Amino acid sequence: MNMKEKLESLGRNSIQLKIARKETYKLGATRFGGKPDVPPDFVWPTYEGESYDHVVKDRPLTFLAQFNCEELAQFDKEHLLPDHGLLSFFYETDTQCWGYDPKDKGCARVYWFEDLSALSAANFPADMEEDFKFPMVKIKMDSKYSYPSWQDFSEMFPDEKDYDAFDLVWNELTDETPENRSQLLGWPDVIQNSMFAECDLVTQGYYLGNGWVKIPKEVRQQAEETARDRWMLLFQLDTVELGDFELMFGDCGHIYFYITKEDLAARRFDRIWLILQCY
């Protein structure tokens, strides 16, 4: 196979997200920010971790976005997501965990509320600071084929060393370079390194903050060989801006919600793993 054939064979559908204009509230609608729509028994998620002032305390997660699954269905060409209900994403945006430490578990949460008729707008927790109550922003969706970044591609084809040839074909296939790279599904837009094995190892309890030197060789090898087939991107969020509001992850980074294909098929959204990468 030549470079183009290799890349084309790896194409996956993704749902491109344009998060731009101000939005008005509508129950159960797809949107970024505002108050989440939740069932009556919903308990707002918190994360117990060390804050910037080195105090370990429970902090409420920030509500990021919700997606009406019925609205997603027309763009979800591979029928991977639920076709009804509401998917909601939360993240602790104060300290912004990076996801290389098993202790980061719980810094991000995803919920699937199946019955829209049972939902209503939640009240923010009493101890939530104003900075973490985000404005409502409209999300426009479109179906788009996505292809792996060089970091993922070169792991699958280690003999390919010609980045310039890859870049040429990648740009030809993707047709454009979107300013904002927020999406559901598809291939992640990698900033630093491939994340599949990272998700696999950290969820097994390995701390990855000091390199991978302490991980048994066979464990690491197993992850590097199989994680790409097991894990997939669920949601990638880039910088969000609206008027005076800006949400940025690190230095112009992204956050990535990953899930195993098995857990997605079984709708076990409580088992996602979040990674932050930036420049």
Automatic annotation (TrEMBL):
This is YwqG family protein. InterPro entries: DUF1963, YwqG-like_sf.
